[in-house]
């Protein structure tokens, strides 16, 4: 039984490690937008970001991950799992879509960065930040015009 368990754990660690290395997993620990286009499906998003109004002031992580350390890397790990699963099983939607959890993170980050600009709107409408959907109206801000 211990030998079988050792083989199973070794196989999982080996498979996970080789997949991480093959998929350039260390790049995802960085803040470099090039890492987000390691897979071809993100090329349009990356190219759009290069032409967007946010290119000079924000990277992928600034918008798509929480700004505090532990939640940021938890989100990166979670997204990495779902991306790996989607590409392995080829069951991701095309064009790729943002998940509800990530959309909430994106909206929180919009409100944080643009707080001075939107503070009065939020106060006048009597809503908290979580009730706004920035990308509903500003869909082209981060990734440029839709193709």
Count the beta strands. Answer: 0
- Per the principal axes of the C-alpha atoms, what is the gross shape? elongated
**In which range does the helix fraction lie?**
55-70%
- Helices and strands, in order, run as HHHHHHH
Helix-strand makeup class: mainly alpha
Assembly state (oligomeric)? single chain
Number of H/I helices: 7
Note the main sheet.
none
- Contiguous uncertain segments of 5+ residues: none
Radius of gyration: 18 Å
Mean pLDDT score: 84
Distance from N terminus to C terminus (CA atoms, Å) equals 56 Å
Provide the β-strand percentage band.
Answer: under 5%
Question: How is this structure best described in words?
Answer:
The chain has helices at 2-22, 43-51, 60-64, 69-89, 100-113, 115-125, 134-137. The mean pLDDT is 84. The protein is elongated. Helix content is 58%, strand content 0%. Helix 5 crosses helix 6 (115-125). By secondary structure, it is an all-alpha fold.
Descriptive key words:
7 helices; mainly alpha; 147 residues
SSE arrangement:
Elements: H1 2-22, H2 43-51, H3 60-64, H4 69-89, H5 100-113, H6 115-125, H7 134-137
